[in-house]
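Why does residue order matter? Because the sequence determines the fold. Keep that principle in mind as you read this record.
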Amino acid sequence: MRSIPVRPGRWAVLAALVVLAVVMLAPFVIVTMNAVKSPADYAAGGPLSLPSELYLQGIVDFWQRVDFGRKLLNSLMISGAVAILAVVLSVLNAYALGIGRVRGRLWILVGFLLANTLPQEALAYPLYYLSKEVGLYDTQLAVIIIFTAIQAAFGTYLLSSVLGQFPRAILEAAEIDGASRWRILWRIVVPISRPTLAVLMIFFFIWTWNEFFLPLIFLIGNDNQTVPVALGVLQGERMMDATMSSASALLGIIPAVAFFLIFQRTLTRGVTVGAIK
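Structure:
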């Protein structure tokens, strides 16, 4: 049999990918090692030493100290609600802009693009004032509304360009059959665009999960705080040693990683669907 020659360039690419994987996984491995060390073990060996025994009391103490179960549920509720609502709102906006071709479409898309460039620091005071006026300050509903609007601005800009390339023949055939615009949206456009919508939903969930600045401002009550806010507040109060800090970081990372791994196939299929004819 004729052997396939291996080019040096392929080995170089493989080596570069291995190095990149090691660099990306190293912080997670170090955090995991320190999370299962005892304070004495950490003081004796430092952060890079292997644990001499499996010590889980730091994780237990952190869970009980911050009521991590409630914070985890808060983050799941807020991130899940934002992901679903932002995708629905993005679809409705993009359907009008990408397929409906409303007047001033270009300027509206420019407005959505500019909205994505605004820093959250510039939005903090106006949103704080409005939430106070309508009585939504220190409620999860306020955070859900804010991030739904922020994520939907990006989703609308992205989906408008996608739906702008939607096959017109399919839409015209549905109109000839007597389908209304609402029926065309939910029975034709949404099912065909499902991979793209799934990718958007995953990104919206992870982005909202990792948000810290605005939830820190709007969720001051302990019962409403999310996981990143709880971690930041407890770190700022200097109430944890190094091993408990590692335990808190590990518990904060695991849900997002688990969510990503569960929906990895959906994410991969949605990203590659446009490249396969």
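The chain has 14 helices and no strands.
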